[in-house]
Amino acid sequence: MAHYPLLTKHSSFYLARERIGEDEEFIFQGQNSPPLRNINTAQLLNEQRERRGENVAVVSEWQNSSTLQYESLIHSVRDIARSLLGLGVRHGDRIVVLAGNSIEYVQLFLAIGSIGAIFAIINSSFTVEEVEVAVDFLGHGKLIMWPVGSAQSYGDLLTWTSFRLSGLNVKENLIDRYWGQVDPNDALCIQFTSGTTGPRRASMLAHRNLLNNADLLGHRLNMSSEDVLCCSLPLSHCFGLVCGVLATITHGGTVIIPSDVFNPNASLRAISEHQCTVIHAVPTIFQALMDFAAAQSYTKRLKLRTGIIAGSSLSETLLRRLQAELGLDGLAYAFGNKEFP
């Protein structure tokens, strides 16, 4: 077997090339430490409640600064799981969600996974035709909720208020029967690829897959329960949901949601007022933050130390500006692989 080293002074990843008969395959291998964890979403929430129940888990600035500690987060997630069960949702059912960033989006994602259902994400940037294709592909037995958090009626779609009322008659023992019983190798999420290399494809991602991805990413950035992450990226993308929200939760930190869609003023205000230490973004978002007219009034009070930049090429000029204006000396550059065949 031949080994081909990849990357970096901080890691020891390599491609292993092996010939089996007439076939040849490449295996991506990396470090064995820290070890992978074999847990599901509900088990992660239970764990963080025991360890960090009083720590702030999520703050949604645009929703009147709605705040959930880890203790109240798990209670709210169980209540939403009750509503899902009241609607007849069970293990393996696909729940289709089309929404902007909100505290309910986080709760719904965690609740769906905690009872073994599958969170199927529709990106808000999809065209009507793409939404129709995605929904048709996902099949029957699904619930579409859009937009999460709204009291407005959208025809046959459930409002958030109506959805929550569906759990009133669900008993606690039914929640306990499903809560945390899912195999970590079962699907947690279905996401559609961006389509940059061809038609959009559905990627099925497991609890073990996403939680370890989030945990190891946070480990690479030296994240801890003291970190505060500004989530300016859409939660309908892995970059925001997994690298942002899940990575922060696995390390017991705090997620700040500045706005339902990216807004440079809201993001800069949140970064400054909450003394955020971590931010992930694509180059265009970082550029927009630094070019915002009132940026200088915020950047004097920043405590940013690290984050991830990805999505397109990074110029040396932008990197130098990030270091000089936002204090981001510890940025990591990440590559997604949902587009792989």
Q: What is shown here, in short?
A:
The protein is an alpha/beta fold. It is built from twelve helices and 15 strands. The chain is 37% helix and 19% strand.
Features:
alpha/beta; medium-chain fatty acid-CoA ligase activity; Amp dependent CoA ligase; 5-stranded mixed β-sheet; Rossmann fold; ANL_N_sf; ligase; globular; 341 residues
Which residue ranges are poorly predicted, with pLDDT under 50 across at least 5 consecutive positions?
1-10
User: Going across the major beta sheet, what is the strand order?
Assistant: 5-4-12-11-13
Q: Approximately how much helix is present in the residues?
A: 25-40%
Number of structurally distinct domains: 2
Task: Annotate the secondary structure layout.
Blueprint lengths: L1 E4 L8 E7 L2 E7 L11 H12 L3 E5 L5 E4 H17 L7 E4 L5 H12 L3 E4 L6 H11 L4 E3 L14 H6 L6 H7 L8 E6 L9 E5 H14 L7 E3 L7 H13 L3 E4 L6 H10 L4 E2 L3 H9 L3 H5 L6 E4 L6 H11 L3 E4 L8
Helix pairs in contact: 1-2, 2-3, 7-8, 10-12
Tell me about this structure:
- It is a single chain.
- The chain has twelve helices and 15 strands.
- It is globular.
- Residues 1-10 have low confidence and may be disordered.
- The protein has helices spanning 41-52, 70-86, 103-114, 128-138, 160-165, 172-178, 207-220, 238-250, 264-273, 283-291, 295-299, 316-326, and strands spanning 2-5, 14-20, 23-29, 56-60, 66-69, 94-97, 118-121, 143-145, 187-192, 202-206, 228-230, 254-257, 278-279, 306-309, 330-333.
- It starts with a strand and ends in an 8-residue tail after the last strand.
- The strands form four sheets. It has a five-stranded mixed sheet with strand order 5-4-12-11-13, sandwiched between helices.
- By secondary structure, it is α/β, with parallel strands linked by helices.
- It has two domains: 1-31, no CATH class; 41-333, 3-Layer(aba) Sandwich (Rossmann fold).
- α8 (238-250) links the parallel β11 and β12 (254-257).
